[in-house]
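G., the chain you wanted modeled:
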Amino acid sequence: MTVVRDGPVLVEGPVEIVQEDGTTATSERFVVAVCTCRRSRAYPWCDTSHRRRTKSSGSAGREGGDRTPGTDSKGTHDGDHH
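Predicted structure as tokens:
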């Protein structure tokens, strides 16, 4: 497991997460980005929503350029949500 400052927790997969309401989210990916900011539209998976909240110099035009492991090019996760 790797904790990214101001970002997700990266967990080696496969991963099964039991959420507060008892539902489970699973992923067979080799690395999964788990959201810690709760702003993700794909929660519990990170969709890089945490990046939109902070501004740093040199970040212009970078927003869509790099991806967080565990998401596809649209920022969604390909794991099954149950």
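Confidence is low (pLDDT under 50) at residues 59-66.

Shout if anything looks off.
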